[in-house]
Specification:
The protein is of the alpha+beta class. It contains six helices and four strands. The chain has a four-stranded mixed β-sheet, with helices on both faces. A hairpin with a 4-residue loop joins β2 and β3. The radius of gyration is 16 Å and the shape is globular.
């Protein structure tokens, strides 16, 4: 039996290669954040990094986003914004809207917040995660 080729499979495979490359070339803020949350260190929840999220924009158009960090249990996306995000704010807003439409909660922190104010970032995440767990 032949498998039907999905038109977006090739794109997904290219995005997966990019996500793996991004994991290997993480920013200092991403590396710091990862050390703080990996192995269920944050609220006992599993966090993935450079996680691919698929959003079907229309019946024949699929968009893949690579979330910096993702908690499957809470459908939570955590984005760390560096200098490049200052130039792509409208793209980030569209991307965030798509993910919210698919049921994700998206929260953004700057790299500086993560590196200089970890306690504050951690407190915000703990509060958000606790609230979402109570809703389940």
């Amino acid at each position: 039996m032949l498998h039907q080729h999905r038109p977006h499979t090739e794109l997904y495979l290219r995005v997966r290669i990019l996500a793996r490359r991004m994991r290997k070339n993480a920013t200092p803020a991403e590396n710091f954040f990862w050390e703080k949350v990996r192995n269920r260190k944050l609220f006992g929840l599993k966090i993935n990094r450079q996680f691919i999220i698929q959003c079907r924009i229309s019946p024949d158009f699929v968009k893949f986003y690579i979330a910096d960090f993702h908690c499957h249990e809470l459908k939570l996306v955590i984005e760390l914004d560096g200098q490049i995000h200052l130039r792509q704010q409208s793209e980030d807003m569209i991307r965030t809207e798509h993910m919210i439409r698919y049921g994700f909660t998206v929260i953004r922190f700057t790299n500086e917040q993560v590196l200089r104010n970890w306690e504050e970032v951690e407190a915000v995440l703990n509060e958000l995660m606790e609230a979402q767990l109570k809703q389940q």
